Amino acid sequence: MKDPLRHLPGYLLKRASTAAMAGLNRKLEPFNLRHAEVAFLMLLATTPGITQSAAGRLLDIQRANMVPLVARLQKRGLVSRQRVDGRSQGLMLTPAGRSTLLRARRVVETSEEELLARVPARLRPMVLPVLTALWKSSTA
Amino acid sequence: MKDPLRHLPGYLLKRASTAAMAGLNRKLEPFNLRHAEVAFLMLLATTPGITQSAAGRLLDIQRANMVPLVARLQKRGLVSRQRVDGRSQGLMLTPAGRSTLLRARRVVETSEEELLARVPARLRPMVLPVLTALWKSSTA
DNA sequence: TATTGTTATACTCTATAACTATA
DNA sequence: TATAGTTATAGAGTATAACAATA
Question: Is the model's pTM score more than 0.90?
Fold first, then answer.
């Protein structure tokens, strides 16, 4: 049976993405973290003091949807907030957040390595350029 | 500001996918169809008589989640069912389904072309192989 | 025993509108 | 006027458990 979808980049992109994210979420279960939460923690690690809105813009998460995400992580003691002016709050990792991220990051990294490992070595250097181009393209 | 995520294939995959699917869904709005529904209709076009369960397996949609999808499209007169044995039903496009798919497919195709168009010509031949490899890899 | 279609359910993700308080 | 954080809400997508009818 011929599959009419296997030659469509967009469809492959979707299937590859959902499969990869489902796998990653499964590996992150022991930490009780989802992939988007880890991405957020990683962003905080390199950009301490960033505001909730700015983080949402970088991660493509709506302001409104950042609220429960940050609240959840703050409640668990992984993230702290500090007022910078009357309406903004700088976000930072707590020590517990840093230590949790350290372990979660190892899971992410092995997951990323496994993703790359099965791409034929010849194609491997093309993975980042191709994905980056596809990402930018879809902005239009 | 350095972004700790831009060099992670899995993260790029996710961002590229959600952006592309959001764009496609927007373009499909006039047809009142979502990308997964079009994928299903395309599968029916090449595999008439396929059962709901089999289609779900190919599309990675759970049996239970196929129920409302098929019911919705049947209710709109795009899909018809025909019993093949006591428990299975073969699914087919109706004439209306075929004609809707014809137009929706044009949207999908231009969307796919736009996706490819912004990938540098040198990398373009790598897109399908890379995505296919990434997909297979995440199965593990 | 295994499979098909189904119901019910729950959780996550995403999107929009509107409010407040500040800038 | 525009922005940050928030609330409320709705629509998708996804996942699991269970059941009846059938193979």
Answer: yes
Residue B93 has φ and ψ, to the nearest 5°, of: -75, 140
Q: Which nucleotides of C are covered by protein (CB under 7 A)?
A: 3-9, 12-18, 21-23
Q: Which of residues 84-103 of A touch B (CB under 8 A)?
A: none
Which of A43, A45, A128 faces B9 most closely, judged by CB atoms?
A128
The one-digit pLDDT tens for each residue of chain A (140 residues) are 568 999 999 999 999 999 999 999 999 999 999 999 999 999 999 999 999 999 999 999 999 999 999 999 999 999 999 999 999 999 999 999 999 999 999 999 999 999 999 899 999 999 999 999 999 866 54
Sort A26 into a burial class: Cβ within 10 Å, 0-12 / 13-18 / 19+: exposed
Distances in Å between the Cα of B132 and the Cα atoms of A115, A123, B112, B113 are 12, 11, 15, 18
Handedness of CA B23, A21, A5, B131 (dihedral sign): positive
Alpha helices (H) along A1-140 = 9-28, 35-46, 52-59, 63-75, 95-117, 127-137
In this structure, which amino acid lies at residue A31?
A: F
Q: Which residues contact A117 (CB under 8 A, 6 or more apart)?
A: B137
**Separation of alpha carbons A130 and B119, rounded Å:** 7
> In which order are the strands placed within the sheet that holds B50-51?
B50-51, B89-93, B79-83
Q: What angle do CA B132, B138, B140 make, to 5 degrees?
A: 120
Residue of B nearest to A18 (CA): B14
Categorise residue A93: left if φ over 0, alpha if ψ from -120 to 50, beta otherwise: beta
